[in-house]
Amino acid sequence: MLLLFAALVFSAGLHHGGSWPIPGKGLSPSLHSVKGDPETLEELMALDHGLVEGDIILHSERNAADRKWPTLDIPYVISPGLAARTEDIVAALEMISENTCLTFHQRSNQQDYIFFRSAKGCASYVGVIGGKQDLHVGRFCKVGNIVHEVLHALGFYHEHTRPDRMNYITIMSENIMKGRERNFQMQTGRTFQLPYDLLSIMHYGSNYFSSNGEPTIKSKVKESGMGQRMMMSPTDVLRVRLLYKCDSYNKTGQAEQEAGALSWQN
């Protein structure tokens, strides 16, 4: 059974201009990559040797696939250490809720909830795991990065691991950091028969885990913005609506008129 512990990566447009103090040996050739991709930080610092895709952790007790939340109104808590980031976190939650049937509220006594905690990088489990569910928010995680992590918590994986990716991107294996090749392996997951989305907020950027500053992912179509962390794409929105059957329920959770509701196959 798998749980994805996903660390968010900054897009080129959100790169931070300062230097990253990365401890450990053998990382100096890769500092240019880490500098702009803080969600890769935890794996590159070897804080958890079980991480894959920069942020995926294997778990023997639960399968993240189809582990959607049983409610459309998801409780959360922001740790005191992240009080200064409240505005960013709320903005990220609003980006998801404004175009879907999902809402978020501060936890009272709910058993299952998202716990936003301070960390070095940005990371999240994939799908509901039960109980207090940590979601890491690092210093350099922007609103779009937090959206990416919350979408992981809602049950979504990285777009670049889709099994149909070969029609849209090329993985440049010769440029990938040694030992990080598994971060680019294809995974089996639900696509809802939606088209591959280079502009998905869940897609890797072109230089993630680069060993030499050259691209690790190249698009086969003319498209700019791959790896963007500015906003959810229309496909990202539709993906949430499909998984949570938003077209069958309104904001109060009541069934809509059958004639006006769309029916989707699981």
Topology:
Blueprint: E1 2-3, E2 6-7, H1 31-36, H2 41-44, E3 51-52, E4 56-58, E5 73-78, H3 86-97, E6 103-106, E7 113-118, E8 123-124, E9 132-137, H4 143-154, E10 169-171, E11 217-219, H5 234-243
Helix pairs in contact: 3-4
Features:
single chain, 266 residues, 17% helix
CATH superfamily of one domain: Collagenase (Catalytic Domain)
| Termini separation | 20 Å
Q: Secondary-structure element order, as H and E?
A: EEHHEEEHEEEEHEEH
Class computed from helices, strands and strand pairing: alpha/beta
What is the rounded Rg?
18 Å
Strand content: 5-15%
The helix content, as a percent range, equals 10-25%
Major β-sheet profile: 6 strands, mixed
Strand order of the largest sheet: 2-8-9-7-5-6
Low-confidence stretches: 1-35, 56-65, 251-266
**Average residue-wise pLDDT:** 77
Question: Mind telling me the CATH class of one domain?
Answer: Alpha Beta
Number of helices: 5
CATH topology of one domain: Collagenase (Catalytic Domain)
Report on this model:
The protein has 266 residues and is of the alpha/beta class. It has a domain at 73-156 and 241-248: 3-Layer(aba) Sandwich (Collagenase (Catalytic Domain)), CATH 3.40.390. It is built from 5 helices and 11 strands; from the N terminus they run ββααβββαββββαββα. The chain has helices at 31-36, 41-44, 86-97, 143-154, 234-243, and strands at residues 2-3, 6-7, 51-52, 56-58, 73-78, 103-106, 113-118, 123-124, 132-137, 169-171, 217-219. The protein has a 6-stranded mixed β-sheet, covered by helices on one side. A hairpin with a 3-residue loop joins strand 3 and strand 4 (56-58). Helix 3 (86-97) packs across helix 4. The longest helix has 12 residues, at 86-97. The radius of gyration is 18 Å and the shape is globular. The two termini are 20 Å apart.
